[in-house]
Amino acid sequence: MPADPRDVLSRPAPAPDVTVSYGDHPDQLADLRVPAGSGPARPLVVVVHGGFWRAEYDRRHTDPLAVALAGLGHPVAQVEYRRTGQPGGGWPATLTDVLTGVTELPRLAAGALPGRVAAGPPLLVGHSAGGHLALYVAATAPDAVGGVLALAPVSNLAEAYRLDLDEGAVAALLGGGPADHPERYAAADPRSLVPIPTRTVVAHGSLDEHVPVGMSREFVAAGRAAGGDVHLVELPECEHFGLIDPESAAWPEITAAFRSLRKDR
User: Fold this and answer.
1) What is the pLDDT of residues 88-104, one digit of tens each?
2) Which domain holds residue 235?
3) CA 83 to CA 54: how far, in whole Å?
4) Which of the ends of the chain has fewer CB neighbours closer than 10 A, N or C?
Protein backbone atom coordinates (compact mmCIF):
# COMPACT_ATOMS: atom_id res chain seq x y z
CA MET A 1 0.00 0.00 0.00
CA PRO A 2 1.32 3.52 -0.78
CA ALA A 3 2.67 5.56 2.14
CA ASP A 4 -0.31 7.89 1.77
CA PRO A 5 -3.47 5.95 0.82
CA ARG A 6 -4.93 9.10 -0.72
CA ASP A 7 -2.29 9.01 -3.45
CA VAL A 8 -4.70 6.96 -5.54
CA LEU A 9 -6.99 10.00 -5.87
CA SER A 10 -4.47 11.85 -8.04
CA ARG A 11 -2.45 9.00 -9.56
CA PRO A 12 -2.00 9.43 -13.33
CA ALA A 13 -3.90 6.98 -15.50
CA PRO A 14 -4.58 6.57 -19.22
CA ALA A 15 -7.20 8.89 -20.66
CA PRO A 16 -10.66 7.44 -21.29
CA ASP A 17 -11.44 6.20 -24.79
CA VAL A 18 -14.76 8.00 -25.30
CA THR A 19 -16.93 10.49 -23.42
CA VAL A 20 -20.70 10.43 -23.81
CA SER A 21 -23.48 12.66 -22.46
CA TYR A 22 -26.67 11.36 -20.86
CA GLY A 23 -28.17 14.84 -20.41
CA ASP A 24 -27.77 18.51 -21.26
CA HIS A 25 -25.90 19.65 -18.14
CA PRO A 26 -22.07 19.71 -18.45
CA ASP A 27 -21.79 17.21 -15.58
CA GLN A 28 -24.30 14.76 -17.05
CA LEU A 29 -21.68 12.70 -18.83
CA ALA A 30 -19.54 9.60 -18.49
CA ASP A 31 -16.10 8.49 -19.61
CA LEU A 32 -15.97 5.10 -21.31
CA ARG A 33 -13.08 2.64 -21.30
CA VAL A 34 -12.68 -0.22 -23.76
CA PRO A 35 -12.27 -3.63 -22.09
CA ALA A 36 -8.89 -5.27 -22.34
CA GLY A 37 -8.42 -8.11 -24.80
CA SER A 38 -10.73 -9.39 -27.50
CA GLY A 39 -13.09 -11.49 -25.42
CA PRO A 40 -16.86 -11.64 -25.66
CA ALA A 41 -19.10 -8.70 -24.97
CA ARG A 42 -19.73 -8.29 -21.27
CA PRO A 43 -22.08 -6.14 -19.17
CA LEU A 44 -21.16 -2.53 -18.72
CA VAL A 45 -19.63 -1.59 -15.37
CA VAL A 46 -20.69 1.84 -14.11
CA VAL A 47 -18.27 3.34 -11.60
CA VAL A 48 -19.87 5.90 -9.26
CA HIS A 49 -17.27 8.07 -7.55
CA GLY A 50 -17.40 9.28 -3.97
CA GLY A 51 -16.28 12.46 -2.26
CA PHE A 52 -19.27 12.97 0.04
CA TRP A 53 -21.32 14.28 -2.89
CA ARG A 54 -19.22 17.49 -2.95
CA ALA A 55 -18.24 19.46 -6.06
CA GLU A 56 -14.52 19.38 -5.30
CA TYR A 57 -14.43 15.64 -6.00
CA ASP A 58 -15.12 14.26 -9.45
CA ARG A 59 -14.76 11.08 -11.49
CA ARG A 60 -11.05 11.62 -12.13
CA HIS A 61 -10.11 10.12 -8.76
CA THR A 62 -11.56 6.77 -9.86
CA ASP A 63 -9.35 6.56 -12.97
CA PRO A 64 -7.04 3.83 -11.55
CA LEU A 65 -10.09 1.82 -10.43
CA ALA A 66 -11.77 2.14 -13.84
CA VAL A 67 -8.60 1.16 -15.72
CA ALA A 68 -8.22 -1.92 -13.52
CA LEU A 69 -11.85 -2.98 -14.03
CA ALA A 70 -11.47 -2.59 -17.80
CA GLY A 71 -8.39 -4.77 -17.44
CA LEU A 72 -10.67 -7.52 -16.14
CA GLY A 73 -12.44 -7.54 -19.51
CA HIS A 74 -15.46 -5.30 -18.91
CA PRO A 75 -16.42 -2.07 -20.63
CA VAL A 76 -16.43 0.65 -17.99
CA ALA A 77 -18.28 3.94 -17.65
CA GLN A 78 -17.23 6.53 -15.06
CA VAL A 79 -20.43 8.46 -14.50
CA GLU A 80 -20.35 12.11 -13.47
CA TYR A 81 -23.21 13.92 -11.77
CA ARG A 82 -24.13 17.26 -10.25
CA ARG A 83 -22.83 17.62 -6.72
CA THR A 84 -23.34 19.83 -3.68
CA GLY A 85 -21.62 23.19 -3.82
CA GLN A 86 -22.50 23.78 -7.47
CA PRO A 87 -25.71 24.99 -9.17
CA GLY A 88 -28.30 22.23 -9.32
CA GLY A 89 -26.41 19.88 -7.01
CA GLY A 90 -27.89 18.21 -3.95
CA TRP A 91 -31.48 17.10 -3.55
CA PRO A 92 -32.82 15.79 -5.82
CA ALA A 93 -30.53 16.26 -8.84
CA THR A 94 -27.49 14.45 -7.45
CA LEU A 95 -29.56 11.30 -7.04
CA THR A 96 -31.62 11.60 -10.20
CA ASP A 97 -28.53 12.30 -12.31
CA VAL A 98 -26.99 8.98 -11.30
CA LEU A 99 -30.30 7.17 -11.76
CA THR A 100 -30.63 8.60 -15.27
CA GLY A 101 -27.00 7.88 -16.09
CA VAL A 102 -27.23 4.25 -15.02
CA THR A 103 -30.37 3.68 -17.09
CA GLU A 104 -29.05 5.45 -20.20
CA LEU A 105 -25.41 4.40 -20.25
CA PRO A 106 -25.79 0.78 -21.44
CA ARG A 107 -27.41 2.08 -24.64
CA LEU A 108 -24.92 4.90 -25.06
CA ALA A 109 -21.94 2.65 -24.39
CA ALA A 110 -23.18 -0.01 -26.80
CA GLY A 111 -23.32 2.63 -29.51
CA ALA A 112 -19.89 4.04 -28.70
CA LEU A 113 -18.15 0.68 -28.18
CA PRO A 114 -19.74 -1.60 -30.81
CA GLY A 115 -19.50 -5.30 -30.07
CA ARG A 116 -18.06 -4.82 -26.58
CA VAL A 117 -21.14 -4.18 -24.40
CA ALA A 118 -23.45 -7.11 -23.67
CA ALA A 119 -27.18 -6.55 -23.54
CA GLY A 120 -28.65 -6.26 -20.09
CA PRO A 121 -28.37 -4.08 -17.01
CA PRO A 122 -24.97 -2.83 -15.85
CA LEU A 123 -23.01 -3.74 -12.76
CA LEU A 124 -22.50 -0.81 -10.39
CA VAL A 125 -19.29 -0.18 -8.46
CA GLY A 126 -19.65 2.72 -6.04
CA HIS A 127 -17.22 4.05 -3.45
CA SER A 128 -18.18 5.94 -0.29
CA ALA A 129 -20.86 8.47 -1.31
CA GLY A 130 -20.83 6.72 -4.68
CA GLY A 131 -21.67 3.53 -2.83
CA HIS A 132 -24.69 5.29 -1.38
CA LEU A 133 -25.76 6.38 -4.87
CA ALA A 134 -25.30 2.88 -6.29
CA LEU A 135 -27.45 1.40 -3.52
CA TYR A 136 -30.06 4.10 -4.06
CA VAL A 137 -30.29 3.30 -7.78
CA ALA A 138 -30.51 -0.44 -7.12
CA ALA A 139 -33.33 0.12 -4.63
CA THR A 140 -35.18 2.59 -6.83
CA ALA A 141 -34.79 0.91 -10.24
CA PRO A 142 -33.78 -2.71 -9.57
CA ASP A 143 -34.51 -3.85 -13.12
CA ALA A 144 -31.89 -1.38 -14.36
CA VAL A 145 -29.09 -2.88 -12.25
CA GLY A 146 -27.38 -6.25 -12.63
CA GLY A 147 -25.53 -6.15 -9.32
CA VAL A 148 -23.82 -3.75 -6.91
CA LEU A 149 -20.36 -3.71 -5.41
CA ALA A 150 -20.55 -1.04 -2.71
CA LEU A 151 -17.13 -0.05 -1.38
CA ALA A 152 -17.29 1.58 2.07
CA PRO A 153 -20.74 2.96 1.23
CA VAL A 154 -22.56 5.60 3.19
CA SER A 155 -25.41 3.14 3.64
CA ASN A 156 -27.25 4.90 6.48
CA LEU A 157 -27.81 8.59 5.83
CA ALA A 158 -29.58 9.23 9.12
CA GLU A 159 -26.64 7.77 11.04
CA ALA A 160 -24.16 9.64 8.85
CA TYR A 161 -26.03 12.85 9.66
CA ARG A 162 -25.93 12.02 13.37
CA LEU A 163 -22.17 11.35 13.16
CA ASP A 164 -21.70 14.53 11.10
CA LEU A 165 -19.58 12.70 8.53
CA ASP A 166 -17.38 15.11 6.57
CA GLU A 167 -18.75 18.05 8.52
CA GLY A 168 -22.31 18.29 7.30
CA ALA A 169 -22.11 16.32 4.05
CA VAL A 170 -25.49 14.65 4.42
CA ALA A 171 -27.20 17.88 5.44
CA ALA A 172 -25.75 19.53 2.35
CA LEU A 173 -27.07 16.70 0.17
CA LEU A 174 -30.60 16.54 1.57
CA GLY A 175 -31.05 20.09 2.87
CA GLY A 176 -31.07 19.22 6.58
CA GLY A 177 -31.54 16.35 8.99
CA PRO A 178 -34.12 13.57 9.26
CA ALA A 179 -36.39 15.76 11.39
CA ASP A 180 -36.29 18.51 8.76
CA HIS A 181 -36.93 16.34 5.71
CA PRO A 182 -38.19 12.89 6.73
CA GLU A 183 -39.60 12.26 3.26
CA ARG A 184 -36.20 12.81 1.65
CA TYR A 185 -34.50 10.40 4.02
CA ALA A 186 -37.25 7.85 3.40
CA ALA A 187 -36.65 8.09 -0.34
CA ALA A 188 -32.86 8.36 -0.40
CA ASP A 189 -31.48 6.45 2.59
CA PRO A 190 -30.45 2.87 1.71
CA ARG A 191 -31.03 1.80 5.30
CA SER A 192 -34.71 2.67 4.95
CA LEU A 193 -34.92 0.80 1.63
CA VAL A 194 -33.78 -2.68 2.71
CA PRO A 195 -33.87 -5.21 1.36
CA ILE A 196 -32.13 -3.99 -1.82
CA PRO A 197 -33.67 -6.19 -4.55
CA THR A 198 -30.39 -6.56 -6.49
CA ARG A 199 -27.52 -8.86 -5.57
CA THR A 200 -25.17 -6.70 -3.51
CA VAL A 201 -21.70 -7.14 -2.11
CA VAL A 202 -20.48 -4.60 0.44
CA ALA A 203 -16.73 -4.34 1.02
CA HIS A 204 -15.43 -2.27 3.91
CA GLY A 205 -12.08 -1.86 5.65
CA SER A 206 -11.96 -2.23 9.41
CA LEU A 207 -9.49 0.68 9.60
CA ASP A 208 -11.79 3.12 7.78
CA GLU A 209 -11.79 6.52 9.48
CA HIS A 210 -14.10 8.22 6.97
CA VAL A 211 -17.11 5.89 6.94
CA PRO A 212 -17.30 3.59 9.99
CA VAL A 213 -17.31 -0.11 9.19
CA GLY A 214 -20.09 -0.62 11.73
CA MET A 215 -22.45 1.09 9.30
CA SER A 216 -21.86 -1.64 6.72
CA ARG A 217 -22.11 -4.41 9.29
CA GLU A 218 -25.51 -3.18 10.44
CA PHE A 219 -26.77 -2.50 6.91
CA VAL A 220 -25.84 -5.97 5.66
CA ALA A 221 -27.27 -7.65 8.75
CA ALA A 222 -30.56 -5.79 8.29
CA GLY A 223 -30.68 -6.60 4.60
CA ARG A 224 -30.06 -10.30 5.17
CA ALA A 225 -32.66 -10.41 7.93
CA ALA A 226 -35.15 -8.93 5.47
CA GLY A 227 -34.34 -11.59 2.88
CA GLY A 228 -31.96 -9.60 0.70
CA ASP A 229 -29.12 -11.07 -1.37
CA VAL A 230 -26.45 -8.98 0.32
CA HIS A 231 -23.03 -9.98 1.62
CA LEU A 232 -20.27 -8.27 3.57
CA VAL A 233 -16.55 -8.56 2.83
CA GLU A 234 -14.71 -6.99 5.76
CA LEU A 235 -11.02 -6.27 5.22
CA PRO A 236 -9.21 -6.15 8.58
CA GLU A 237 -6.07 -4.29 7.42
CA CYS A 238 -7.71 -1.85 5.01
CA GLU A 239 -8.69 1.80 5.32
CA HIS A 240 -11.00 3.91 3.13
CA PHE A 241 -8.98 4.37 -0.05
CA GLY A 242 -7.36 0.96 -0.40
CA LEU A 243 -10.70 -0.31 -1.70
CA ILE A 244 -10.29 1.68 -4.95
CA ASP A 245 -6.54 1.25 -5.30
CA PRO A 246 -5.39 -1.54 -7.64
CA GLU A 247 -1.95 -1.34 -5.98
CA SER A 248 -3.28 -1.98 -2.46
CA ALA A 249 -3.10 -5.25 -0.59
CA ALA A 250 -6.92 -5.31 -0.61
CA TRP A 251 -7.24 -5.36 -4.38
CA PRO A 252 -7.35 -9.17 -4.86
CA GLU A 253 -10.30 -9.35 -2.48
CA ILE A 254 -12.02 -6.48 -4.30
CA THR A 255 -11.64 -8.24 -7.65
CA ALA A 256 -12.97 -11.47 -6.10
CA ALA A 257 -15.98 -9.57 -4.76
CA PHE A 258 -16.55 -8.01 -8.18
CA ARG A 259 -16.38 -11.35 -9.96
CA SER A 260 -18.95 -12.76 -7.54
CA LEU A 261 -21.50 -10.40 -9.09
CA ARG A 262 -20.96 -11.69 -12.61
CA LYS A 263 -23.40 -14.24 -13.97
CA ASP A 264 -20.60 -15.79 -16.05
CA ARG A 265 -18.35 -16.36 -13.04
Assistant:
1) 999 999 999 999 999 99
2) 5-259
3) 5
4) C
